[in-house]
Amino acid sequence: MKHITSIQNPFIKSLVLLQEKAKNRKQTGSFLIEGKREITLALKGGYEIETILFLAEICSESETKKISGNAELIEINKEVYQKLAYRDTTEGILAIAKTKSLHLSDLKLSDNPLILVAEAPEKPGNIGALLRTADAANLDAVIIANPKSDLYSPNIVRSSVGCLFTNQIATGTTNEIIAFLKERKINFYCATLQNSTSYHTQDYTTPTALVVGTEATGLTQEWRDAATQNIIIPMQGEIDSMNVSVAAAILIFEAKRQRGF
């Protein structure tokens, strides 16, 4: 088994770039996962884990082998681990994984799917929260329209608490996704202030996509014009919008309630 003890090691330098640069993740088709639960969920979700690095004083070799599957193991020292670790709370283990295709055509949907579509979310915390909600509701898929962030960034891996790996995820342009939904006869309901009806009056028991936009600008005109129905969550206070992940959760669990959970 390999041991690496220097942060100047070329391999370690390449991993630092994987953490810091979306370009490097895209070029190599690889990214880093930190934490036992996250690595376990990635393996369960069908992600290919190539290599696992561990700090023996926190995560023993025997413990690492229980998690690692067929991955190569590399023992590292504290200095190297602290250089690579992204979280304040450490578990002593990191993995190098291969990214998955995010093409719409790769989605495997049920006969009566329930899908979340989020247009151009930017904040990793919001994306992570959306993925956690989608996991909690066991949605068929999460589709990101016009993505602004690399889904395999360490901030999203961390904020999703591993739910990046438990959801089917695809990305595409707004027009591509609208065409995808229409072709599959999936009704889509767009959360927007304009020309909307209260969300709880609609029927989500048939193939359904719930579409949310950013808090700052909302959904683009293309979504509002193409929607099966524009919907709104009635607001009774002074403001006219709420956090996108909270709004998505309200809509998703109304659909789940109608479907008998």
Describe the 3D structure:
This protein is of the alpha/beta class and 261 residues long. The chain has ten helices and twelve strands. It has helices spanning 10-20, 22-28, 36-44, 61-68, 78-84, 124-136, 154-159, 174-183, 221-226, 244-258, and strands spanning 2-4, 30-34, 49-54, 72-76, 93-98, 114-119, 141-145, 169-172, 187-191, 197-198, 208-212, 229-232. The protein has a seven-stranded parallel sheet, with helices on both faces. Strands 1-4-3-5-2 form a five-stranded mixed sheet, with helices on both faces. Helix 1 packs across helix 2 (22-28) and helix 6 (124-136) runs parallel beside helix 10. The N and C termini lie far apart (48 Å).
SSE inventory with pairings:
Blueprint: E1 2-4, H1 10-20, H2 22-28, E2 30-34, H3 36-44, E3 49-54, H4 61-68, E4 72-76, H5 78-84, E5 93-98, E6 114-119, H6 124-136, E7 141-145, H7 154-159, E8 169-172, H8 174-183, E9 187-191, E10 197-198, E11 208-212, H9 221-226, E12 229-232, H10 244-258
Parallel strand pairs: 1-4, 3-4, 6-7, 6-11, 7-8, 9-11, 9-12, 10-12
Antiparallel strand pairs: 2-5, 3-5
Helix pairs in contact: 1-2, 6-10
